[in-house]
């Protein structure tokens, strides 16, 4: 078998396993948050349904900026359910020069106009081309504006990355492509210091909710998410 054919077959086999759970994963308590076909289980922040700007294409949730130009409202996509202690696994692919994020612990209330007013964020970015890539604590895998990654782990633009967010009794671990990028514990003196040295230091609701929604950020660029699954701890 030639190398090109072998690579194609491996890619095809991997694609068949996207947005599905193995018997082992089901036994371990994993649940899919995205069925690969619809936006079921998600809605736009402070809305009842998902904006049509979030489309399903080739088994991925894709934020279509052209749709927004044609009148479809944008906005962050959030889970219908809330989570407190969990392990989240999600694949993402950013467009050239793009910016997005995975936001968690989101408290959905009209007093907060955006998901990031309450929820910390794991950054999703084209580190090389977006201006945020030159800012410390604003790169892919970082706990946005709070803590820098231990080491770079992002793949080139156009490739899928696998992110994990593990949160148990306030202890937080972020992983990108198998590399542990950030660890900290919410509600500790270390956490308070991180917030005090960030743009969020005067935000009354930021990081205050142990239980909350998970959000996919609309930052004005095309971004894709797939293979989104969670297990409660």
Key terms:
disordered N terminus, AL/BT2_dom, 8-stranded antiparallel β-sheet, 31% strand, 13 strands, 3-keto-alpha-glucoside-1,2-lyase/3-keto-2-hydroxy-glucal hydratase domain-containing protein, Jelly Rolls, 233 residues, 5-stranded antiparallel β-sheet
What quaternary form is this? single chain
Spans where pLDDT lies below 50 across 5 or more residues: 3-14
CATH class: Mainly Beta
What is the CATH superfamily? Exo-inulinase, domain 1
Reported for the largest beta sheet, the result is: 8 strands, antiparallel
CATH T-level fold name = Jelly Rolls
* Helix and strand element order: HHEEEEHEEEEEEEHEE
CATH architecture: Sandwich
Q: DSSP strand (E) fraction?
A: 25-35%
Total number of β-strand segments? Answer: 13
What is the terminal separation in angstroms?
43 Å
Structural class: alpha+beta
Rounded Rg: 17 Å
Helix content: 10-25%
Descriptive overview:
Helices cover 14% and strands 31% of the residues. The chain is of the alpha+beta class and 233 residues long. The protein has one domain (21-232): Jelly Rolls. Strands 1, 3, 4, 6, 9, 10, 11 and 13 form an 8-stranded antiparallel beta sheet that branches. Strands 2-5-12-7-8 form a 5-stranded antiparallel beta sheet, with no helix packed on it. The termini are far apart. 38% of the residues are buried. The model is unreliable at 3-14 (pLDDT under 50). Pfam families: 3keto-disac_hyd. Residues 29-231 form the 3-keto-alpha-glucoside-1,2-lyase/3-keto-2-hydroxy-glucal hydratase domain. GO terms for molecular function: hydrolase activity.
